[in-house]
């Protein structure tokens, strides 16, 4: 370009810039079609950028949002980012529709209701709820296997050993409940009413003892499932299932926990049937027997599940030194309470309350497993001092931190302390809320009462076994009784009659029976 043409080039350039300014600032044209022109002068673009109103997102921004949504379900820490799918809201699955109506009077011919009393209708409703619950349970168990277990095994998302650990004996429970459902359907009349169910329940309920192994495995199954969720393939699969209509917004663990919740519901269902059963009905006696059977089974499974849970956590305790080991932990069979608490410095601790010892730990990962490292020396419950602290009584550690802390951070504290000779500990622990705090206080107080009562019973039992002899030494009670009998024989120099022998025998039997009862109480 020659020098004389340069002014003409500047004038054309200014005209183009003015035309671009008019195009950008025109609201009508902006609304109809966004400008895709590339502005040449960089300084002009910088100055005119503030004039463009943010009416709509650019394609790149929309694409970035779409990409973020597509990969967001791979994040383990933010599972709530998923908005429900439109098709999942507008098209509910068929099984949820079938579960909408669970009333006996709405399922069968309503004309039968006019022939039955109000109490009998309630009885039929309770029996139908039992039968319908079995049908729903069977469907959920089959769904857990078909929609979760089999696909993860086929896609190699988990190994067969891991799936066996998580699902346990789930397969064996399906035919068990199918048997009860078949029996209930066989005794149902064509009009939908059922006359007798007590004898069926008495014969079937002992089969629930097979729940022992399934419930005892749940603690380890839950821990393994939570650990596997850190794998993005597992998390991706479970999240997709959660968004699918068949899941009814229930995750995998909800399905795996359904059998346990069903087991503890049986006593309530049977009591409801018994409540609406007339006293002269043949089912009255059978239902009472069935309730006793299921209560015994639930209590036994509850004990074994508690022992399994206690053993699981004891095996994952990590001791920093040999002096932290305590026989009270090794002899524990039940975890009374455990959970996360914070100290006054904000350190997260996991506290275990066993039967006779309180253990404060910190959660760590050891060999890709969640373990609990002892934070301090175990505190015996017998010597533990519990204090309920008022809100605001505890000061948070550090002057700066305490100065800027709000009221929420100084609430729900309680203190546990221990002092035995040169050893002493004191921990101010904060619960998540007032309800959680009250639960901890109640559990610790109950544990202290049990330990105190057991100690008094042991002292009484030991004192009952020994009595002071005439010379002041302790001898067994049986020997003292025999010596007194010999002394009385020598002093009287005559034989005892039959009445005196019988009285002494009765006294000895009463003493022995009292000793046995005290020994049993001590063992319990």
Automatic annotation (TrEMBL):
GO biological process: intracellular signal transduction; positive regulation of Rho protein signal transduction
One GO cellular component term noted in the UniProt record for this chain: cytoplasm
A Pfam family reported for this protein in Swiss-Prot or TrEMBL: SOS1_NGEF_PH
Primary site of residence: cytoplasm
GO molecular function per UniProt: guanyl-nucleotide exchange factor activity
Keyword Cytoplasm: yes
Function recorded in the entry: Acts as a guanine nucleotide exchange factor (GEF) for RhoA and RhoB GTPases.
Name by which UniProt lists this protein: Rho guanine nucleotide exchange factor 3
Organism: Podilymbus podiceps (Pied-billed grebe)
């Amino acid at each position: 370009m020659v020098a004389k043409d340069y002014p003409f080039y500047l004038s054309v350039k200014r005209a183009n810039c003015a035309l671009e300014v008019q195009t950008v600032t025109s609201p009508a044209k902006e609304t109809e079609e966004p400008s895709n022109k590339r502005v040449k002068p960089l300084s002009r673009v910088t100055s005119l950028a503030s004039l463009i109103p943010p009416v709509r997102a650019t394609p790149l921004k929309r694409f970035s949002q779409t990409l973020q949504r597509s990969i967001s379900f791979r994040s383990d820490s933010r599972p709530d980012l998923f908005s429900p799918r439109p098709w999942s809201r507008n098209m509910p699955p068929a099984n949820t529709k079938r579960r909408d109506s669970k009333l006996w009077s709405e399922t069968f011919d309503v004309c039968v209701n006019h022939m039955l009393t109000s109490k009998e209708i309630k009885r039929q409703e309770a029996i139908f709820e039992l039968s319908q619950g079995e049908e729903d349970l069977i469907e959920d168990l089959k769904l857990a296997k078909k929609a979760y277990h089999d696909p993860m095994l086929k896609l190699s998302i988990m190994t067969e050993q891991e799936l066996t650990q998580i699902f346990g004996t789930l397969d064996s429970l399906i035919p068990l409940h199918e048997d009860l459902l078949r029996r209930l359907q066989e005794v149902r009349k064509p009009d939908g009413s059922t006359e007798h169910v007590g004898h069926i329940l008495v014969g079937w309920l002992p089969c629930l003892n097979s729940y022992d192994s399934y419930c005892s495995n749940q603690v380890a199954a839950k821990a393994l499932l939570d650990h596997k969720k850190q794998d993005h393939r597992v998390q991706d699969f479970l999240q997709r299932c959660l968004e699918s209509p068949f899941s009814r917004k229930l995750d995998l663990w909800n399905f795996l926990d359904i059998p346990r919740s069903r087991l503890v519901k049986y006593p309530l269902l049977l009591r409801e049937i018994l409540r609406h059963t007339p006293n002269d009905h043949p089912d009255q006696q059978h239902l009472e027997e069935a309730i006793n059977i299921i209560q015994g089974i639930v209590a036994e499974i509850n004990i074994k599940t508690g022992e399994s849970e206690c053993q699981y956590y004891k095996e994952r305790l990590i001791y920093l030194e040999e002096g932290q080991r305590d026989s009270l932990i090794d002899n524990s069979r039940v975890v009374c309470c455990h959970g996360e608490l914070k100290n006054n410095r904000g350190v997260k601790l996991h506290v275990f309350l066993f039967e006779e010892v309180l253990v404060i730990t910190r959660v760590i990962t050891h060999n890709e497993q969640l373990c609990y490292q002892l934070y301090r020396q175990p505190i015996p419950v017998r010597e533990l001092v519990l204090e309920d602290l008022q809100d605001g009584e505890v000061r948070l550690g550090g002057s700066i931190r305490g100065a800027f802390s709000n009221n929420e951070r100084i609430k729900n504290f309680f203190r546990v302390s221990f002092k035995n000779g040169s050893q002493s500990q004191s921990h101010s622990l904060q619960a998540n809320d007032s309800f959680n705090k009250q639960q901890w206080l109640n559990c610790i107080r109950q544990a202290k009462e049990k330990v105190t009562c057991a100690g008094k019973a042991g002292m009484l039992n030991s004192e009952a076994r020994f009595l002071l002899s005439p010379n002041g030494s302790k001898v067994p009670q049986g020997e003292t009784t025999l010596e007194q009998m010999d002394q009385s024989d020598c002093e009287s120099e005559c034989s005892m009659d039959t009445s005196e022998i019988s009285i002494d025998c009765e006294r000895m039997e009463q003493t022995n029976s009292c000793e046995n009862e005290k020994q049993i109480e001590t063992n319990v």
